[in-house]
Amino acid sequence: MIEMDMPREAPVVEVKCIRHVYPDRTQVDLCGLDFSVYAGQRVVILGANGSGKTTLLFHILGILKPVDGQVYVFGLNPSKEFKHIRNRIGVVLQELDDQIIGPTVWDDVAFGLRGQGLSRDEIARSVDDILEQLGISHLADRIPHYLSGGEKRKVALAGALVKRPELLILDEPFAGIDPGSRREITQVISEYNRRFGTTCIIALHEVELVSELADIVYVIRRGGVVLKGTPREVFAAGDILKENNLEVPSIVELFNTLRGRNWPVAIPMTVSEAVRQLETLRGNAGS
């Protein structure tokens, strides 16, 4: 297992060795390395389907209560005190139809701002701005029920971000999303993290998206956290990823092979980084 040195301030989210038992007696244990998320971090929970990613997120949101273990969000137990932290959190879950409730897209995105003491003009500006950022202004007057899955996911993300939450929790945010929309969503998430210091927890199974979205990665399987590190550290542990049914990006697998043959290369996070390393090696070989 890989574990980085972490900051010592109080974490925004802290999960310590939880166990949950569902009504059908299915048991999910998430132990191993404790799960800690600090202010401003982008943390990806990486795992194959059925590994417990959603179970972990539901405990962080207080939807589930562990039989054993501890969960703290902003220092509070979310299963008991979620009302005290609700307005500090933005969420996009997998089941979008349970989350989108407004009669139109515009109304749905505006819903989270009502009751916060904002004027109509302030609400309108905030809603119009986030719709534009996500490229869905043209959907403002549409009925959400008739949108595509990808469009619904953008609407749900707009509703989560419009409040400028301190903590953003996303469960498989790219399901049903085309590559262009995926780039737009990735850029918006990164921009909110950079501009507002938004702490992000994102559950994924697509390993190739990790380098764009994560400062820290937790790899989980049913039974616990098996790996923790930066994207570069996690990619270097290709064997562990494969053992947990996660597909290693081809370029990462190539560079892991080169490293195994004593080539002086680092695991690249982007194609351009890989090209620069190979061009450097070619130049050194020709000199």
Q: Can you characterise this structure?
A:
The chain is an alpha/beta fold. It folds into two domains: 13-101 and 165-243, Rossmann fold (3-Layer(aba) Sandwich); 249-287, no CATH class. It is built from eleven helices and ten strands. The chain has helices spanning 53-60, 78-81, 105-111, 120-133, 149-161, 179-196, 210-213, 231-236, 238-243, 250-260, 271-286, and strands spanning 13-21, 27-32, 35-37, 42-46, 68-73, 89-92, 167-171, 199-204, 216-221, 223-229. Strands 1, 2, 3, 4, 5, 6, 7, 8, 9 and 10 form a ten-stranded mixed β-sheet that branches. A hairpin with a 5-residue loop joins strand 1 (13-21) and strand 2 (27-32). Helix 3 packs parallel to helix 5 (149-161). It is globular and about 65 Å long.
Helix content: 25-40%
The description of the largest β-sheet is:
10 strands, mixed
Number of strands: 10
Give the C-level CATH assignment of the largest domain. Answer: Alpha Beta
Number of domains: 2
Question: Which residues form runs of ≥5 with pLDDT under 50?
Answer: 1-7
Q: Tell me the CATH superfamily of the largest domain.
A: P-loop containing nucleotide triphosphate hydrolases
